[in-house]
Here is the input.
Amino acid sequence: MEWILLVIAGLFSGVVGALVGLGGGVILVPAIVYLGAAGFIDGITPQTVVGLSVIMMIFTGLSSTIAYMKKKTVDFKSGAIFFAGSAPGTVIGAFVNRGLDLPSFQLYFGIMMVFLALLLLIRKYLKPVQWFVRHGRKTTFTDASGTYVYGYPIWFALLLTFGIGFSSGLFGIGGGSMLVPAMLLLFLFPPHVAVATSMFMVFLSALVNSVTHISLGNVPWIYTIPVVPAAYIGAKIGAYLNHRLNSDSLVVVLQIVLLLLGIRSIFEGIY
Here is the structure.
């Protein structure tokens, strides 16, 4: 029974993660925590659930990146820059994770998700932050919906992604849940490029993150057997669906996912 639930959780995490660029950890982590608390899966702690999540994200990141490469929506230069900032942060976050108990983990995780959802919710009412584009490396992207000019100062991107990497190592969420809103709100990335580039960075960061969590003994290897293949297939489905939805739909999906998961996690952390 537990393997069936793990396959379902992995598949759904892969679909949603690749669809909106989250990496899948933001779905898998609360799902596994809930299943563990309900007694369906044994041996679940904040450390093991994060270890499982980062292993899964190697394969969801790889699967979706390959799919997005075929659509030519991955900004590899930006992804490499973001990875350079996030990699050291993931290592530090993984070590800090060792000191968290389950209620604290859920509470902090939920607060972060709600904050990100609210940022996206008010995005349309905020004046576009043109400063980052004017004072940074600029890139032009053209698709069927028009031409976009986006960009960022490299120094700021490195600082921002260091913080994102820290949260990724701490919570096992891949960093995409924070990077995508930042790319949309601050750097003015077109949504499809933001999602594709985020998944590329998720893949690279998950490689570094997994080494740290493996060395700490946080990975429940037996649970990777049902989760990883399901997540890999789900990521391919999510990448396919990404190009069937328009940009506004992608942002709405991202808002709903973050808000619902955040509220539930806060509730679980308090009660």
In short: The chain has one domain: 1-270. Residues 1-270 form one domain.
